[in-house]
Amino acid sequence: MPNDYFQFQQFRVAQNDCAMKVSTDACLLGAVADAAGASRVLDIGTGTGLLALMLAQRFASAALVALEIDPAAAAQAQANVRQTPWAERIQVHALSLAQYAATGPAQFGHMVCNPPFFRGALPAPDATRRLARHAGATSLTFEELAQFATNFLLPHGALTVLLPPPEMLIFAQAAQAVGLHPQRRLLVRHRPLGRITRHIVRFERAGAQAVEVEELPIRTADDADYSAAFRALLTGFYLAL
Asked: Residue 115 in contact with residue 51, Cβ under 8 Å?
C-alpha cells in the first residue's frame, strides 16, 4: 500500500485523499517539462499538486494554475501547496477543463498534462481512481485537451504531455487537427534497450523541420540503480539522489 505522503527534498506531498498517488511518470514529467520564460503555467489534472509544485520549484518567476476535477484531490493539492514556499504563486481550482475554459482565463505560456489513457484496460473499481486513469471515464478527452491548448496557449506557448506510445499517437493526431505539432520527444524506457513505455512530447503551433528525439532509461542495465540520466533529472527532488 502506498504511503500517505511522499517526501521530496523541498516539499512533502500528502496523497491519502488522491486516487492517483505520486508516480515515476509524474516526477519525470515535472522534471522534463520546460516552462522557461513562461509567466503563467497550467497543470491540467493536478491530483496531489505534484506537477505544479515541481514546476514552481524549477521556475521561480512562473505563476501556476492547477486544475483538478475531483474535489477531495483538489483540497489535498491545496493543502500541499500551502505547506510550501511557493503557495502565493500556485492557485488550485476544483474544476474540470471545460468549466475552467468557461471562465475565460488568460492565456498561458506553458501547459502540462498526464491525461487519462487506459482506454482498453479493465476499469478500476474505485470511482475516483477510474476518473483519473481511464480516458472513457471523464470528460477530458484527447480532443478536448488539444482544443483547450490551442485556444488558451500564447502564440509561442507549449503543451507538454506524457502518454504511452499508442495513446501518444492518437493524441498527436488530435493535436495536429487543431494546429499543434510535436517539437521534442523523450522516449522513456525502464532500462537501456528495454521497450519504450512512455513518450513525453512538447507540442507547439510551429511545425518543426525535425523533431528533437532523446531517450531516457530510468534504471541501469542490471536494474540495480537509477540511471545517470534519471539521477540528473531528479536531482533536487528525490531524497535518495
From this structure: no
Among residues 57, 159, 73, the alpha carbon closest in space to that of 113 is found at: 159
DSSP tag of 22: P
Host H or E run for residue 166: helix 165-177
Q: What is the pLDDT of residues 181-210, one digit of tens each?
A: 999 999 999 999 999 999 999 999 987 778
Strand partners, 184: 202, 212
Q: Are 127 and 133 in contact (CB under 8 A)?
A: no
- The Cα–Cα gap between 177 and 181 comes to 9
- For the chain, which domains are there? 5-234 (3.40.50.150)
* Phi–psi pair at 188, nearest 5 degrees: -105, 130
119: left (phi over 0), alpha (psi -120 to 50) or beta: alpha
Mean pLDDT of all residues belonging to the chain: 90
Q: Which of 12, 16, 80 is nearest to 46 (CA)?
A: 80
Helical pair 50-58 and 71-82, crossing angle rounded to 10 deg: 30
